[in-house]
Design brief:
Helix content: over 70%
Low-confidence stretches: 168-177
Number of strands: 0
Oligomer: single chain
Mean pLDDT: 92
CATH architecture: Up-down Bundle
Radius of gyration: 17 Å
Structural class: mainly alpha
Length: 177
């Protein structure tokens, strides 16, 4: 099987977003640790690990279907935030970029009649929906709870609880997909 060149390019372009997400979440975890938000740091480290898995799935897929995966250069991620709300709003924007990129790859794959790539991307469509829903819910909770010191303590505990929960839906099969 040889992947259409337009699809290969779109997939390689997407690798940069996945790689950027790995380091963006790691940088966010470092900021959380600096701020004493251990639960938040644990959550963002887990997000970084998950993005690394996704990066490798795309990387391996490109090579598997006769393409050539190109390891991208990655820009320095944001390393400082004004508060936890900003970390989550930034993460949501990043996830929305990833979603848009996946939809673009699907569009290109349809134009090229590349059914294997369309099938490969189904998992990621579900995964992105879950990620965006998760961050929207977290943002809503943070806005509801507030930003005071006691609120921050509660938010940190909520993040820790989220990071220890088993993923639902498509994310549950992240290692299998």
């Amino acid at each position: 099987m040889i992947i259409p060149k337009k699809v290969e390019k779109a997939l390689n372009d997407h690798l940069e977003l996945e790689a950027s997400a790995v380091f963006s979440y790691l940088a966010t975890a470092a900021w959380c640790e600096k701020e004493g938000l251990e639960g938040c740091a644990k959550f963002f480290r887990k997000q970084s690990d998950e993005e690394h898995v996704h990066f490798m799935k795309f990387f391996d897929y490109i090579n598997e279907v006769g393409g050539h995966a190109i390891v991208p250069a990655v820009k320095q991620p944001k390393t400082d935030f004004k508060d936890v709300l900003e970390t989550c709003e930034s993460a949501l924007k990043g996830e929305q970029k990833v979603t848009k990129s996946i939809y673009n790859i699907i569009k290109v794959a349809r134009e090229e009649e590349d059914h294997a790539t369309i099938d490969f991307l189904r998992f990621f469509v579900d995964e992105q929906r879950e990620e965006e829903v998760q961050f929207n819910r977290i943002i809503d909770k943070i806005k509801l709870i507030g930003k005071g010191a006691q609120s921050l303590y509660y938010i940190d505990k909520e993040f820790e609880k989220i990071s220890t929960q088993k993923p639902a839906g498509g994310a549950q099969n992240a290692e299998k997909a």
